[in-house]
Amino acid sequence: MRFENTGIENQTVELSRLDDLMESLGFVRASQWDYDRVTYDRKFEIKNDVYYLRVQGYAIEGDVGARYALIKLIAPLLGKHYYPHGVEYGEGENFPSSLINQCQNILAQVKEGLAKLQG
């Protein structure tokens, strides 16, 4: 599921500041990056199901591996994990409405945090 019009799409922010913000909101980047892309995941476990709220971006300047990059964010995703196949984001997925609401609230916090970073 793609979250449209969250206000974070197309925002740009320096990587280390983005890392700090996302970590403070419970997201993990870990090793989910390459030299020009980053992915932040927040895991949710509901009953026996696992879901991920994913925020991704790509470097428009610099290099993620060198620890300096200016990141441009894209529309966030919500996916359901299926072992051992991975995470599915398809329109056919069923997501609990309480989870969708929680994700929307978290994304609003990301937007607010980005606004503070940009002054």
Concise summary:
The chain has helices spanning 15-24, 97-117, and strands at residues 12-14, 37-46, 49-63, 68-73, 77-82, 86-88. It is an alpha+beta fold and 119 residues long. A hairpin with a 2-residue loop joins strand 2 and strand 3 (49-63).
Classify the helix fraction into a percent range: 25-40%
**Overall geometric form:** globular
Rounded to an integer in angstroms, the radius of gyration calculated over CA atoms is 14 Å
Low-confidence regions: none
Class from helix and strand fractions: alpha+beta
Commentary on this structure:
The chain has 119 residues and is α+β, with helices and mostly antiparallel strands. The protein contains two helices and six strands. The chain has helices at 15-24, 97-117, and strands spanning 12-14, 37-46, 49-63, 68-73, 77-82, 86-88. Strands 1, 2, 3, 4, 5 and 6 form a six-stranded antiparallel beta sheet that branches. The relative contact order is 0.25. The model has no long low-confidence stretch (mean pLDDT 91).
Q: Which features characterize this protein?
A:
119 residues; six-stranded antiparallel β-sheet; alpha+beta; single chain; 26% helix; 2 helices; 6 strands
Task: Map the helices and strands.
Blueprint: E1 12-14, H1 15-24, E2 37-46, E3 49-63, E4 68-73, E5 77-82, E6 86-88, H2 97-117
Antiparallel strand pairs: 1-4, 2-3, 3-4, 3-5, 5-6
